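Retro notes
What went well: the complex prediction finally ran end to end.
Inputs used:
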Amino acid sequence: MKRELSLSGAARLLAALLIRNKKTFASAESCTGGMVASAAVGVPGASRFFAGGAVSYSDRSKTILAGVPAGTVRRYTAVSPETAAAMAKGIREKLGADYGVATTGIAGPTGATEKDPVGAVYLAVSSARGETVRRRVYGGGRRAVRLAAARDALLLLCGTAERETEKTIGSGR
Amino acid sequence: MKRELSLSGAARLLAALLIRNKKTFASAESCTGGMVASAAVGVPGASRFFAGGAVSYSDRSKTILAGVPAGTVRRYTAVSPETAAAMAKGIREKLGADYGVATTGIAGPTGATEKDPVGAVYLAVSSARGETVRRRVYGGGRRAVRLAAARDALLLLCGTAERETEKTIGSGR
């Protein structure tokens, strides 16, 4: 069961998949704040599959570091599927990686909105084929929410990378 | 003893200091790869003192995300006091923060050079008054080296922020 993987386990799974396919990824993290990148760099030889990451917790850094258009955060708010997708796409293009992955959510203990409770996180993956976004609501405290979101972001990327590899193999037959 | 602080303890110490002085910091991390940023974001309300961070593990991301002049890495190598200082200065200026902090080193298990063994890390802090760089050599495995470097980077920043506050108070008398 993938859900029982640890964050570092998810990173090793992704590393093996990307290295085998000669692909790279970049990260743009808000609520997880570096956990995705740190898990990637935890794998020795990370430069083979990890192009770099932005920790874009503030609105300003989402634009400056992750390449999110300023209007996106203004129009949709920082915690939204649109901003998550723009972060994943922005960092992928900025660093010339094959994939981008992003997280933005409400890690707590405060910050709940009408739309989203504490623990709500948007996860996004971007590739040349487009963006995929998922909304999750996690229980537990700030640290538990962040760890679960970071792991699930890596697993969402694993899923996309696996599917796209299958399609490429399929279309090549 | 500051040396016995955990990474999260160092982050809480720094947070209290910066919030009291209404200052912010930004991070650019190579070998620690997001651990500094993640420790900062682990403190609730991190946007009050943390402007954002770059995980610039690859040479290219040091330039694109952290604002390091391309010639600096070429001339001095990625693991050098010059590159560490340029990362800290680059990210501070890019995000308009009061302080920048950076790490670059050899987390292992491979990568030792003639100049630096596995476990060697350069830590840098930048403020409007200039850059401070320290070289440390840590024992233990990849994770232990990264955790110790991330904690010591935060403590080096604490020291600079404390000293500069004292001077400001002193010169105001």
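What we learned: Residues 142-172 of chain A form the longest helix (31 residues).
What to try next: split runs per interface for comparison.
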